[in-house]
Amino acid sequence: MTQEFLRFITESLSASYIPFPRFLMEDSLVDLSNDVKVLYALMLDRASISKVNGFIE
Fold first, then answer.
1. Which has the closest alpha carbon to 24: 48, 40, 42, 43?
2. String of DSSP letters for 10-43
3. Helix-strand-coil percent breakdown of the chain, rounded to 5?
């Protein structure tokens, strides 16, 4: 492993996983693709990080 990769892992303050909202698994959303559901989870995660850092749109 490169030194940069190890530094990123040890110094990273963010979680190493993306929380996936349970409501996306409901039967009413069965028509949405998995790609859309994962994209929603990624955008929700990024929005929460921006909120913590004081960035408001």
1. 40
2. HH--S-SS----GGGGSGGGTTS-HHHHHHHHHH
3. 60, 0, 40
Q: What is the CB neighbour count within 10 angstroms for residue 54?
A: 6
pTM over 0.85: no
- In angstroms, rounded to a whole number, what is the distance separating the alpha carbons of residues 57 and 45? 15
Q: Which of 55, 45, 46, 48 has the alpha carbon at shortest distance from 20?
A: 45
Q: Determine the Cα–Cα distance for residues 40 and 55; give it in Å rounded to an integer.
A: 19
Residues 4-21: pLDDT tens digits? 555 555 555 555 778 889
